[in-house]
Amino acid sequence: MRTWKFLQPATGLKALPIVNNQKPDLIVLDWMMPEMDGLEFIQRLCDEEDQTVVLMLTARDAIANRVEGLESGADDYLVKPFAPAELVARVHAMLRRVNAKPENQKASYADLTLDPSTREAWRGDMAVSLTVTEFKLLHMLQRHPRQVLERRQILNEVWGYDFGGDDNVLEIYIGYLRRKLEAGGDPRLIQTVRGVGYVLREE
């Protein structure tokens, strides 16, 4: 049986050294915190190249707020008020995703190479830095090259539960991957199939 250890510092500022020292599996983060809000906290994690998965909690339910929260680097977003059972389900799902044993064989498609054993990615000779969620999404697409994957199928596998939120979370992460993979002017590999989903293929 897995043992959970809960750490609940009073402020975001106090949480940073705890995260650095304890290396938690997951962070449940409130957007509004004293001394340092959730967005700044995530930015500090990114600056330190900390890839701990983050579930953000907030009362801000507008789509623009959800987009802002996810674009800040949060891996998932839960709007208050929520049922405690839903929070527990999200946490379980995210932990399963973190602890999942991916196929460890290095694989390539076109000039894209992924190494699941180290979670490293390259576009040609250039290394591409990816978060846990970005890597899992790209790895799923790469395991099914030239095969159109439906949105619901991607959401269920990458986010690890019967996703009931806004599909914008998928579009946002596809946007992240495209910006990173095309940063050097390389041609697009992740194609949109309107009304269906996405596919990894050369144009």
Structural class: alpha+beta
- Output the number of helix runs: 7
- Helix-strand pattern, N to C? HEHEHEHEEEEHEHHEE
Q: Using the alpha-carbon principal axes, give the shape.
A: globular
Uncertain runs = none
Provide an overview of this structure:
The chain has seven helices and ten strands. With 203 residues, it is of the alpha+beta class. Strands 4-5-6-7 form a four-stranded antiparallel β-sheet, with helices on one face. Helix 3 (63-71) packs parallel to helix 7 (168-181), helix 5 crosses helix 6 and helix 5 crosses helix 7. It is globular, with a radius of gyration of 17 Å. The chain starts with 11 loop residues before the first helix and ends with a strand.
Write the SSE topology.
Layout (H helix, E strand, L loop, with lengths): L11 H11 L3 E5 L7 H10 L5 E6 L4 H9 L4 E4 L4 H16 L7 E3 L2 E4 L4 E4 L2 E3 L3 H12 L5 E2 H9 L8 H14 L8 E4 L3 E4 L3
Parallel strand pairs: 1-2, 2-3
Antiparallel strand pairs: 4-5, 5-6, 6-7, 8-10, 9-10
Structure characteristics:
globular; 40% helix; 7 helices; 4-stranded antiparallel β-sheet; alpha+beta; 203 residues; 3-stranded parallel β-sheet
Short summary:
The protein is α+β, with helices and mostly antiparallel strands. It is built from seven helices and ten strands.
